[in-house]
Amino acid sequence: MARTSNFAALSSAVINASIGDRWATAHREWDLASVDEDPTANAECVCGQTNLRWLYTIANLQTGSELFPIGSSCIQLFERPDLNQKVTVLERLVKIKRAAQSREKITLTREYFTRAVLKDLHVRGAFTPDKFNHYDPREDYDFLLAMFNKRTTMTASQQRKTSVLLNRKVVRFVSIDERLK
Asked: pLDDT tens for residues 70-120?
């Protein structure tokens, strides 16, 4: 990826808050902590880039330091597929949260979901044990993943179950997810 003219400011901020004293080691100490969306795009990245819409907080796993706001272009400069995937997941979760707040219908489509989003929801505990999943949250995850991958139309029963899981579990979880500001 081409480095922006503001890379020096980003790398300086990252290195100053890291144990590693060079970008090559320091950038590996960081993880994505949270995201906020600024619809007015008035924020400025720690690198100096202006007009940010997506405002990320990154946290150093070794020092506990945080940097905010970081723009998605700067996240890409870390050249880490794990961070890039987390960016995509968090942006979709924000979209679900905003849609739920606006009382829009949330459907199991690529507009809101990816396989990575469903996995993140499962790993973070969105699917809670209950009698309908035989007290095994993996059943809810597996069901939604199967419905997401389905190439044919869902049956009426599958549509009802999907709707219940999205509205009672996913929306409830996303509304309190601390990573989403």
From this structure: 999 999 999 999 999 999 999 999 999 999 999 999 999 999 999 999 999
CA angle 145, 150, 155 (to 5 degrees): 105
The reported pTM is 0.88
Joined together, the tokens standing for residue 139 give 């059943």
Contacts 24+ apart (CB under 8 A), 75-83: 75/32, 76/1, 77/1, 77/3, 77/4, 77/7, 77/10, 78/27, 78/30, 79/1, 79/27, 80/27, 80/28, 83/30, 83/31, 83/32
Q: Which helix (H) or strand (E) holds 60?
A: strand 54-60
pLDDT reported for residue 114 = 97
- Contacts of residue 11, defined as CB under 8 A and 6 or more positions apart, other chains included, come to 23, 26, 27
Cα 5 off chain centre by: 27
Question: What amino acid occupies position 99?
Answer: A
